[in-house]
Design goal:
Structural class: mainly alpha
Helix content: over 70%
Largest sheet: none
Number of strands: 0
Bound molecules: protoporphyrin IX containing FE
Distance between the termini: 34 Å
Number of domains: 1
Number of helices: 9
Mean pLDDT: 96
Shape: globular
Strand content: under 5%
Low-confidence stretches: none
Order of helices and strands: HHHHHHHHH
Length: 205
């Protein structure tokens, strides 16, 4: 891919990633977030986090299946960082609008409501990944250790989807499509690893 196309695609990715927060700011300023603005903000930030996390997880399997798409790697960090950005907005919505910054209310919510417990766990798992996303951190940790640490993203994805299921009413299936996509992406990794090993073995024979 040439440099101009890459710059264009990166610009479009930035615009797409910033669109949900721009829409929320516009809605807040014009008072058009609907009858329950807190729910609208929670919904938009939670869903955007999950979508960006899913997209960032799709990059490695896509590159393995279609080597011509290897340039996608240049977008993984950006998508991961935006996922954390939206996860933090989502967390701050809960801190500010659900608990009104009351530490006791936060603690009791974390202990009593399991979907909050697992949501906080997902955010905590994403935090070290964001903190070590710089080139400096990669050099400092070394590739192997960095890769091992970044496997936490799978646990964060599982916690996120469990969080989503645990907060919907019994019988509501809205988290299903996202669950199917994430399950395919997580299962693709070991399957593709075996496939790659077999191809190498056949080529060496
Ligand atoms: C990576 C982490 C997270 C992801 C991907 C995520 C995703 C989601 C999604 C998709 C929803 C459903 C939105 C809807 O359909 O209305 C949701 C709801 C919610 N999340 Fe999260 N979440 C995460 C972390 C957290 C954290 C850390 C908290 C707070 C401590 C939290 C608090 C909530 C609350 C209060 C709701 C709304 C529940 C309700 O409507 O009763 N989430 N989240």
């Amino acid at each position: 891919m040439n440099r101009t196309t890459l710059v264009l695609l990166k610009t479009l990715t930035w615009i797409a990633c910033l669109a949900p927060v721009a829409w929320l700011v516009y809605g807040a300023v014009t008072n058009s977030l609907g009858p329950d603005p807190t729910a609208a903000i929670t919904f938009a930030t939670g869903l955007t986090t999950l979508r960006l996390l899913t997209l960032s997880l799709a990059i490695t399997p896509l590159r393995q299946l279609f080597p011509r798409l290897s340039w996608l790697i240049k977008f993984r960090r950006l998508l991961g960082l935006f996922a954390f950005f939206y996860a933090t907005l989502h967390l701050m919505t809960w801190v500010a609008l659900y608990t009104a910054f009351d530490v006791n209310a936060m603690n009791s919510d974390i202990v009593k409501r399991r979907f909050i417990t697992v949501g906080v766990l997902a955010w905590l798992l994403l935090f070290p990944l964001t903190a070590t996303s710089t080139n400096w951190a990669i050099r400092k940790l070394g590739g192997k250790r960095w890769n091992r640490l970044h496997k936490l993203v799978y646990f964060a994805a599982v916690c996120s989807i469990v969080h989503y299921w645990w907060q919907v009413k019994t019988g509501v299936l809205t988290p299903l499509p996202m669950t199917v996509v994430l399950t395919v992406l997580l299962a693709a990794r070991p399957v593709l690893a075996v496939w790659k090993r077999r191809r190498v073995a056949v080529a060496a024979a």
